[in-house]
Amino acid sequence: MVKKSSGKILVVEDERNLGQTLVECLEKEGYETAWARSKAEAEAEISSRRFDLALLDVGLPDGSGFDVASGLRRTQPSAAIVFLTAMGAPEQRVHGLELGAEDYIVKPFHLKELLLRIHNVMRRALTLSAAQDGVKLGRAVINFSRYEAVVEGEATPLTQKETALLKLLVDRRGHVVSRDEILNFVWSEDEFPSSRTIDNFILRLRRLIELKPDEPELIRSVRGVGYQLAPEEK
């Protein structure tokens, strides 16, 4: 017997046939879904309940999926975001990732691939929700279950991948974590990030936790291998 998935997903898609197909497939997998056909409907859904993941069409009749993502990040920072778009322009993808998207899928796509990516995102979320909160790293306190870094009393949202990368470094503290280990834990088998992608994530995390990001003492680079979180001082 195949185990059903679980979690709440917001589908924001104005094209009726695709929206219905997505909802039916997700519910068949065991997910609880809500379907919004516009930016206004999506914002109403977000204000009324919490979601584990939002599947956002970029082009909406009354705005942009990017606008929906910005609002979701403010009110529900732990919710994962996956963008759907008919546009494959690099600047669109970069903008989506800057808003904290976990994935960016160009139409047309295979439903099986989409379901696999959603499953991987939800699996990572479950792992992080069980992690210990209040971990002090440099000038920040990391709350894994809330996907946030608190610096001088101000909470900064973290994406799921940023949180997962920090979790891996904390769990392996004092040990060198190779790039392959990072890719296997933070990204899925069906994703193809470059080494530069990992470096960019590390740079952002250093800006959050290091006292001197340009002279990092906590997240150390190990040339040709990967990264190491400095051992705790005794």
Question: What is the fold's blueprint, element by element?
Answer:
Elements: E1 8-12, H1 16-29, E2 32-36, H2 39-48, E3 53-57, E4 59-60, E5 63-64, H3 65-75, E6 80-85, H4 90-98, E7 103-106, H5 111-129, E8 133-137, E9 140-143, E10 148-151, E11 154-157, H6 160-171, E12 176-178, H7 179-186, H8 195-209, E13 219-222, E14 226-229
Parallel strand pairs: 1-2, 1-3, 3-6, 6-7
Antiparallel strand pairs: 4-5, 8-9, 9-10, 10-11, 12-14, 13-14
Helix pairs in contact: 2-3, 5-6
Provide a descriptive summary of the structure in words.
The chain is of the alpha/beta class and 234 residues long. The protein has two domains: 8-128, Response regulator (Rossmann fold, 3-Layer(aba) Sandwich), CATH 3.40.50; 133-229, Arc Repressor Mutant, subunit A (Orthogonal Bundle). Helices cover 42% and strands 24% of the residues. It contains eight helices and 14 strands. It has helices at 16-29, 39-48, 65-75, 90-98, 111-129, 160-171, 179-186, 195-209, and strands at 8-12, 32-36, 53-57, 59-60, 63-64, 80-85, 103-106, 133-137, 140-143, 148-151, 154-157, 176-178, 219-222, 226-229. The strands form four sheets. A five-stranded parallel β-sheet has the order 2-1-3-6-7, sandwiched between helices. It has a four-stranded antiparallel β-sheet with strand order 8-9-10-11, with no helix packed on it. Strand 6 (80-85), helix 4 and strand 7 (103-106) form a beta-alpha-beta unit. The mean pLDDT is 85.
